[in-house]
Structure formats: C-alpha cells, structure tokens
Amino acid sequence: MEVDVTIFEMGPRDGLQNESNFIKTLDKIKLVNLLSTSGIRKIETASFVSSKWVPQMADGEKVMAGIQRQSGVSFTALTPNKQGLERAIKAKADEIAVFGSASEGFSKANINKSVSESLQIFRPIVKAAPMPVRGYISCITDCPYDGPTNPADVIKVGEELLDMGCYEISLGDTLGSATPETTQKLMSALSSAFKTKDLALHFHDTKGRAIENINMSLDFGISTFDSSIAGLGGCPYAPGAKGNVSTESVIEFLESKGLRTGVDMEKIKEAAEFARSLRQ
Ligand code: HMG
Ligand code: MG
Questions:
Q1: Is 1 contained in some domain?
Q2: β-pairing verdict for 42-47 and 74-78
Q3: Between β-strands 95-101 and 74-78, what pairing exists: parallel, antiparallel or unpaired?
Q4: Which class for 134: exposed (0-12), middle (13-18), buried (19 or more C-beta within 10 A)?
Q5: Total number of domains in the chain
Q6: Which of 1, 158, 202, 241 has a CB 3.0–4.6 Å from the CB of 172, allowing a cystine?
Q7: What is the CATH number of the domain that holds 228?
Q8: How far, in Å, from the CA of 84 to the mean position of ligand 2?
Q9: How much is the pLDDT for 238?
Q10: What's the mean per-residue pLDDT of the chain?
C-alpha cells in the first residue's frame, strides 16, 4: 500500500527499555507480533547494548528469535559498538541504528563517550554492517545536562552520520521539551543543510506538544515519524523524560490531515491495550 508518512514504531525498544520490572520475553514477542500485523513496516525490536546499562533489553536475542517475521516489515535494533553489531548480525536484525548526541553531557551519560569518540566508534560499524544503518541524534533542542542545544551541533553530527553511510537521521527530542517554536528554529537551520528525505523526527511527549511539533515538521516536508505504542517509555539517561508520542495519536492526527499511514487502527488499538497491560 502507498503511504504518505512512515511510522517507525519504538514501543518494544524505547517504550520498554525504561520499565523497572522485567517484562517477560514472551510478552515482548507478543507485542512485536501484534505490531507487525498492523501495517507498520518498521519496528525497533531490540537493543544490543550492555545489559549492565539497560537490563530490560538483555533478552534481545531471544526476542528476535521468537518473533514472527512478516515480509515487508523491518525488525530493527540499536547497536552502540562492534559487540552490538555482532549480536545484531547473529540475531538477523533487518536494520540497525547507531545513536549519538548533539550534546556532550547526554553522550557521556548515555554511552560513556564524548560526541567525537562516539562518531569514531560508529564509522567502522556503519561501514561493516551488512544491513542498512539509521543514525540517531539525541538532544536536538535541549539536553538534560547541558541546557539548550545549538542547531549547528545537530548539523555537525548529522553530516558525519550521513557521510559515514547512515541512510537516515532520526532527530531525537530526548527530553520531550521541544515546542513548535524550537522545532521551527531547528528545522529552518537543518533544511539548508540536509535533504528532508534523509531526516526523521523522534518526539518524546513529556510536555504534551509532540503532535504540534509533528505538525510543524510536516511543513518542512518530513515524512517519517518515530512513535511508541500507548506512549510507552522514557530514557534511563534523560531524567524526567516521558515516552515517545503515542503511535495511536500520531496515526489519528496524520489520517485526520488526509495523510495515509497504511496502518490498521483496530489492530493498533489492540496492540495499545496489550502494551498498557505490561506497564506496572
Ligand atoms: P562502557 O561501560 O563504557 O563500555 O559502556 P565497555 O566497552 O567498557 O563495556 C562494559 C561492559 O559492557 C563489558 O562487560 C562489555 O563486554 C559490555 P564486562 O567486561 O564488564 O562484563 N558490553 C556489551 N554487552 C553487550 N552488548 C554490547 C556491549 N558493549 C559493551 N553491545 C556502552 C559503553 C555503550 C556499552 C554502554 O554505555 C551502553 O550500553 N549504553 C547504552 C545506553 C542505552 O541503551 N541508552 C538508551 C538508548 S538511547 C535512547 O533511548 C535515545 C533514543 O531513543 C533517541 C532519543 O530519544 O534521543 C535512541
Ligand atoms: Mg527516544
């Protein structure tokens, strides 16, 4: 089916990574299976990071082995380093993502590396990866440690990620504090540096403004948005940040504007109900 906007589902990864009680592997698998039959074509399914840093994601291999693969759906995974890439290859991830930051404070807290150290680690991973690689940039407007972000720092990291071979940059409003005004300022700066087809937006919804920010991003030609079923989530290294904007609300909003997402709302509601039941 033709779509106008691609929904990149974050629930099984960004959504669950911050849950304090360990979610059973079979429940993670069930959530992915509900999502993969809804018409969503990109699902971040696992995170091959250190289990000391994010224990909730320790069963990534089992989740990847247990899900039902659907043709036309990419099951993707986060990989911070070589070890992550090796795990992702073995687990047959269709796509991986390296994740950097525009700000030093978050980079250090999240992956224990400076921004430039992280880029040096990512370059050989992107080169060696046999599958497509997405690149995240966190803290696009604000950092929990360093305060407001200069758009020039987002551009610098984005240019490096594209240059090393990432097929798309996902711009992370990690704190969920972006507003239509800060989004507009950022997108105006970015639209002279990048092609909009290379950019996706990843809004957390801490302040409840994500839909307005998506609306603003549409004006700049953005056509890929990250969202999380039932709005699950938060980042362990961004204190106070809430989950990604909910997949249901993004689909409802886009469809109300006449934009096709290719997603079956009934199936999404079923997945959302199950996702809510996992939350303690
Ligand atoms: P480190 O401690 O500096 O690294 O962590 P290290 O290389 O010294 O390794 C420490 C231990 O971890 C070693 O084990 C390694 O083997 C192991 P030990 O010898 O102590 O037993 N290790 C691994 N194990 C499994 N898989 C791996 C791996 N790598 C090392 N890939 C590291 C550095 C990057 C590993 C760590 O900081 C880490 O895992 N960080 C991930 C944090 C994370 O997952 N954050 C959340 C995701 S990012 C996010 O949510 C933002 C996003 O949504 C966008 C947005 O909203 O802005 C994407
Ligand atoms: Mg996130």
A1: no
A2: parallel
A3: parallel
A4: buried
A5: 1
A6: 202
A7: 3.20.20.70
A8: 18
A9: 87
A10: 97
